Amino acid sequence: MAVADQKIGISGLNPSIGIKMPFYSYVFVALLAMSGAVSASLWESQSAGLASAQEVSAASMRFMSKIVSDYMRANPAASGEISDTALAPFTPSWFKGDSRLRVAVQDGRGYIFIVVANGERIPAQAVIGGDEMPVTLGIATNGQLVSPVAGTVLLSIPTLIPNGSLVYVI
């Protein structure tokens, strides 16, 4: 049979001659597709984990406000950073909040703060909560509490609170 008599397929090649992929090419394509699916799944898990950690931090700050209020009522002359040991009598045994939370008291105000690292963000709305009364919440900047929304200075805060900390004032 002459070359001119051969039937030409859609791709311009004779289908009986076609390009054949070795078996390992199919395996490679399958592995590539599976690695893409696994990568997407890991990304979603990491995002969910980060959101969960932010929720724990926010909930811990909200709950800690009651503990600090009770502590301040019992110790009206307290001032400075308050240790976990000092807060223990006011803390329920089941409460295992964010271990990065720290507390300071000065001039009758309580400051619950968390030093955020590596660009971590804790949404202000998560700390405030839906039905709660407004609180003073902001970012520590050079001894000032700065509004995360408006960027204005809200009040002076103890200088022991590190810059960049999220601060909840009660």
What is the strand and helix layout of this fold?
Blueprint: H1 23-74, E1 80-82, H2 84-87, E2 101-106, E3 109-114, H3 124-128, E4 136-141, E5 144-146, E6 153-156, E7 166-169
What keyword list fits this structure?
single chain; 170 residues; alpha+beta; Beta-Lactamase; 7-stranded antiparallel β-sheet; 3 helices; 19% strand
Low-pLDDT stretches are 47-51
Helical content class? 25-40%
* Structure annotation, total helices: 3
Based on DSSP secondary structure assignment, what is the total number of beta strands?
Answer: 7
Average pLDDT figure: 75
Give helix and strand order, one letter per element, not per position: HEHEEHEEEE
Share of residues in strands = 15-25%
How many discrete structural domains?
A: 1
Largest sheet: 7 strands, antiparallel
SSE class: alpha+beta
| CATH-level-2 architecture | 2-Layer Sandwich
Rg, nearest Å: 30 Å
CATH class category name: Alpha Beta
Kindly report how far apart the N and C termini lie: 94 Å
Judging from the principal axes of the Cα atoms, what is the shape?
elongated
Strand order of the largest sheet: 1-2-3-7-4-5-6
CATH topology tier name: Beta-Lactamase
Describe it for me?
Strands 1-2-3-7-4-5-6 form a seven-stranded antiparallel β-sheet. It starts with 22 loop residues before the first helix and ends with a strand. It is an alpha+beta fold. Helices cover 36% and strands 19% of the residues. The radius of gyration is 30 Å and the shape is elongated. Strand 2 (101-106) and strand 3 form a beta hairpin. The protein has one domain: Beta-Lactamase (2-Layer Sandwich), CATH 3.30.450. The model is unreliable at 47-51 (pLDDT under 50). The chain contains three helices and seven strands.
